[in-house]
Amino acid sequence: VKDKRKGSIKIFVILLIITSLVFFIAYLSSLNSKVTNKLEGALWTLPAKLYSRPLELAEGSNINTKNLSKELDLLSYVETREIRNPGEYRLNDKTLEIFLKGFQDQNSGIYRVNIEKKRIKGIKRVDGISLDLIRLEPMAIGGLYPAHMQDRLLLDRSRIPQELIQMILLVEDKSFFDHKG
């Protein structure tokens, strides 16, 4: 009777271990699936945009009104006779009147840029206050869109031109390799 009982206990313990192992493996598989889905989704779902530098119109700087008009068109500004809304402008050889859309480094508002002999002679806000410069918002020059418009490619660092890495570091973070964080 004792041998039968010992055999039954051994079988029960072995079945308990096997059952526990099956549940543990199923749990690990479920956990792995959740973590994988979370990482794949969260890391790649937000679109990222790459912007140019903001165009600065500064007193004393040279200006080409044709190029400026093209730049304003690319920024979706609309040339109009009467300026009422952000994103509208009026331009001739002597004056640019513009209702800036505004962004982080530049307040929205109406500005008047006086041009003389292809040089900016003065910049004033609509309230008459003179300024040294105004900035047009940066142009979106690229975008990285997940899922629906995927244009992200993961590359080995060896496939990225060293010049591109240096250019991005120069523009974005000059102290990237030197800071403690």
Concise summary:
Pfam families: UB2H (PF14814). The protein is α+β, with helices and mostly antiparallel strands.
Question: How are the secondary structure elements laid out?
Answer:
Elements (H helix, E strand, L loop, with lengths): L1 H43 L3 E4 L3 E4 L6 H10 L3 E2 L8 E4 L3 E6 L8 E8 L2 E7 L4 E2 L1 E4 L3 E5 L17 H11 L9
Parallel strand pairs: 3-4
Antiparallel strand pairs: 1-10, 2-9, 4-5, 5-6, 6-7, 7-8
Protein name: Bifunctional transglycosylase second domain-containing protein
Keywords: Membrane, Transmembrane, Transmembrane helix
InterPro entries: PBP_transglycosylase (IPR036950), UB2H (IPR028166)
List keywords for this structure.
181 residues, Penicillin-binding protein 1b fold, 25% strand, transmembrane, 3 domains, alpha+beta
3D architecture notes:
The chain is of the alpha+beta class. A 6-stranded mixed β-sheet has the order 3-4-5-6-7-8, with helices on one face. The chain starts with a helix and ends in a 9-residue tail after the last helix. The mean pLDDT is 85. It is built from 3 helices and 10 strands, in the order αββαββββββββα. Helix content is 35%, strand content 25%. It has 3 domains: 44 residues; 87 residues, Penicillin-binding protein 1b domain (Penicillin-binding protein 1b fold); 31 residues, no CATH class. Keywords: Membrane, Transmembrane, Transmembrane helix.
